[in-house]
Specification:
Keywords: Heme biosynthesis, Lyase, Magnesium, Metal-binding, Porphyrin biosynthesis. The chain is α/β, with parallel strands linked by helices. Helices cover 38% and strands 15% of the residues. The chain has one domain: Alpha-Beta Barrel (TIM Barrel). Strands 1-4-5-6-7-8-9-10 form an eight-stranded parallel barrel, surrounded by eight helices. It binds ligand PBG. Ligand PBG binds next to loops.
């Protein structure tokens, strides 16, 4: 027996003795209502198409997307975030503002399927619809033109709201995007549509598998608009701007490598905070598990509770449905 002199032994292990004890004393737990499922829908395919770098994730057809949304609602998942992959991409991302564009068609289909049972969200960005793969319009010198892009985002916001999105997620990291989109929505009578701001979105190598998922045409990188991974304090500058412009919720992305940023943001705000566990994070766990190097389910659940511990209220994860089922059983 060890001793601290006059004091009784302090033994934190007493609270770890049984599963029931650990369950009672857990500071954080993941609830299905914390989870949002990102989902891809591709125009013009007859069968769901597997994404090789994201085993278990597919590009959906409209039918399989409906089924996935219904399944997510059934599992108690909070929401779904839709990404559309159009058949034809061009310099200005025409498909993004076409009411018949795949994302808008998918929004209508999902709302028809689940109504208000899920929070239906859409990615508000041009990279899925542009042939050059950038998140905005390019100027004559090939630079991403901030203010010309804002005008496109404003149009996108209105068509996405009209297609039935409850929440829009502007993810392009243009300066002023939240305010610009908010004004456009309000002017069109969509005061009720909420904005989930990608407040601190870092330029990341871990987006790799997503680029396959949306068949991105990107060559080069997004370093002139997404944040530098070296910067933490800068996230607070983005944060104050997004809040001033009317963000209803804020997000940090990627997830695990940026938990310090998540904590700083969570400590600074009174709005809900989301974290996005991105494609490369998913791929790493799946690949290591496939090799038998880690225990898949334990690793997944550990990553998710770590987001909660770091201050996330909402977690976007490709594992949302299976994690919700396990969380409900705990
Ligand atoms: C941009 C967008 C990206 C992701 C979500 N929205 C890619 C990027 O910024 O390059 C990445 C999501 C993931 O990797 O899971 N529309």
């Amino acid at each position: 027996m060890f001793s601290h002199g006059a004091f009784p032994d302090v033994r934190p292990r007493r609270l770890r003795t049984t599963a029931a004890m650990r369950r009672m004393t857990a500071e954080h737990r993941v609830h299905p209502a914390d989870l949002v499922l990102p989902a891809f829908v591709r125009e013009g395919i007859a069968e769901p198409a597997p994404i090789s770098s994201m085993p278990g994730v597919v590009q959906h057809t409209l039918d399989s997307l409906r089924r996935a949304a219904a399944e997510a609602a059934d599992a108690g998942v909070a929401g779904i975030m839709l990404f559309g992959v159009p058949e034809v991409k061009d310099a200005v991302g025409t498909a993004a503002t076409d009411p018949g564009g795949i994302l808008q068609v998918a929004l209508r289909a999902v709302r028809e399927e689940v109504g208000d049972a899920l929070v239906v969200m859409s990615d508000l960005c041009l990279d899925e619809t542009t042939d050059h793969g950038h998140c905005g319009l390019l100027d004559e010198r090939g630079r991403v033109d901030n203010d010309a892009t804002l005008a496109r985002y404003a149009e996108m916001a209105v068509v996405q709201a009209e297609a039935g999105a409850h929440v829009l997620g502007p993810s392009g990291m243009m300066d002023g995007q939240i305010g610009h989109v908010r004004r456009a929505l309000d002017a069109a009578g969509h005061e009720d549509v909420a904005l989930l701001a990608y407040t601190a979105k870092y330029t990341s190598a871990f987006y790799g598998p997503f680029r396959e998922a949306v068949e991105s045409g990107l060559t080069g990188d997004r370093m002139t608009y997404q944040q530098d991974p070296a910067n933490g304090r800068e996230a607070l500058r983005e944060l104050s701007q997004d809040l001033a412009e009317g963000a209803d919720m804020v997000m940090v992305k990627p997830g695990l490598p940026y938990l310090d940023v998540l904590r700083r943001v969570a400590d600074a705000v009174a709005v809900p905070v989301a974290a996005y566990q991105i494609s490369g994070e998913y791929a790493m766990v799946e690949a290591a598990a496939e090799k038998g190097w880690i225990e898949r389910e334990r690793a997944i659940d550990e990553t998710l509770v770590c987001f909660k511990r770091a201050g996330a209220d909402v977690i976007l994860t490709y594992w949302a449905v299976e994690a919700a089922r396990r969380a409900a059983a705990r």
